[in-house]
Design a protein that fits this description.
By secondary structure, this protein is of the alpha/beta class. The chain has two domains: 125 residues, Rossmann fold, CATH 3.40.50; 100 residues, Dihydrodipicolinate Reductase, domain 2 (2-Layer Sandwich). The strands form two sheets. A six-stranded parallel β-sheet has the order 2-1-3-4-5-11, with helices on both faces. Strands 7-8-6-9-10 form a five-stranded mixed β-sheet, covered by helices on one side. The two termini are 25 Å apart. Bound molecules: NADPH dihydro-nicotinamide-adenine-dinucleotide phosphate and ligand LZUJQKHR. The site of NADPH dihydro-nicotinamide-adenine-dinucleotide phosphate (NDP) has 26 residues, from α1 and α3. InterPro entries: DapB_C, DapB_N, DHDPR_bac, NAD(P)-bd_dom_sf. It catalyses: (S)-2,3,4,5-tetrahydrodipicolinate + NAD(+) + H2O = (2S,4S)-4-hydroxy-2,3,4,5-tetrahydrodipicolinate + NADH + H(+); (S)-2,3,4,5-tetrahydrodipicolinate + NADP(+) + H2O = (2S,4S)-4-hydroxy-2,3,4,5-tetrahydrodipicolinate + NADPH + H(+). Belongs to the DapB family. Catalyzes the conversion of 4-hydroxy-tetrahydrodipicolinate (HTPA) to tetrahydrodipicolinate.
């Protein structure tokens, strides 16, 4: 399969290695705005760039009828508009806040636990994410997905908020530390004990492999998808 990499930083480079090992051809490695010319006719685009450029990048690729796998976080206010553009152009789009198999299993575990905790009024709930100091967005896309999973399954919460919360808000604490690839925890605390579920990424390889697997899966599809569709979770 021909893959264009839009964004060629920490993630783009690892995706390049893994996709090449899996027999794919990388036809573009872009650190600038994609165009019909510089994309070089790929079957799929994998987009890991910056929050402020993601919308425009994805839009351009979809308008050229190229399916897009997007891992860039911090641009979600435009996601609905992008999903509309994918449908109008009869192509495919998949956003994943986190492409690793482990985190997608963790998402399912988090939703199950949120449902179990919905009547346990003695417990408060909080999320924590720890990432490297270069990360531009906070909270992480993964923490937002975890918060949304809790809100869907526990009527005690209606919205998430960074740090100090009131009423029905679910608090997310974002910590930036050294070169941490990505650690996410969900805590339920009472006066007498604590339940914690935690996912720790040891490196970025799991994110990159998941993005390539998603690209292989989406190649001839049309519509908007998530990693749940890819992994059958
Ligand atoms: N969903 C997931 O599983 C994961 C998501 N992420 C997310 O992916 C994104 C990228 O992460 P990471 O690779 O670590 O970040 P980096 O900062 O290492 O890479 C970003 C890349 O985008 C390039 N870039 C700058 N402007 C443009 C543009 N207009 N069009 C295309 N590319 C451009 C940068 O080029 P230059 O260096 O020249 O500025 C750089 O190569 C982040 O939003 C991060 O949160 C990260 C890991 C996993
Ligand atoms: O910026 C990162 O590095 C990561 N970003 C994603 C996020 O915002 O959740 C995924 C992963 O945690 C690494």
């Amino acid at each position: 399969m021909k893959i264009a990499l839009v964004g060629y930083g920490k993630m783009g480079k690892i995706i390049d290695e893994i996709a090449t090992k899996r027999g794919h051809e990388i036809v573009a490695r872009l650190k600038e705005t994609p165009t019909a010319e510089n994309l070089n006719q790929p079957d799929v685009v994998i987009e890991f760039s910056l929050p402020e450029v993601a919308f425009n990048n994805i839009k351009t690729c979809l308008e050229n009828k190229i399916p897009v796998i997007c891992g860039t976080t911090g641009w979600l206010e435009h996601k609905e508009a992008i999903e509309k553009i994918a449908i109008e152009n009869e192509t495919a789009f998949l956003y994943g806040s986190n492409f690793s198999l482990g985190v997608n299993l963790f998402f399912a575990l988090n939703e199950k636990l949120a449902g179990l905790m919905k009547n346990a009024d003695e417990y408060s709930c909080q999320l924590e994410e720890i990432h490297h100091i270069h990360k531009l967005d906070a909270p992480s896309g993964t923490a937002i997905s975890l918060a949304e999973g809790i809100i869907r399954n526990n009527p005690k919460f209606s919205a998430w908020k960074l740090e100090n919360t009131k009423g029905n808000e679910l608090g997310i604490f974002a910590i930036r530390e050294d070169e941490v690839p990505g650690t996410h925890s969900v805590f339920y605390r009472s006066e007498v004990d604590e339940i914690e579920i935690k996912h720790t990424a040891f490196n970025r390889n799991g994110f990159a492999l998941g993005a390539v697997v998603a690209a292989e899966w989406i190649k001839d599809k049309k519509g908007n998808f998530t990693m749940k569709d890819v992994l059958g979770l």
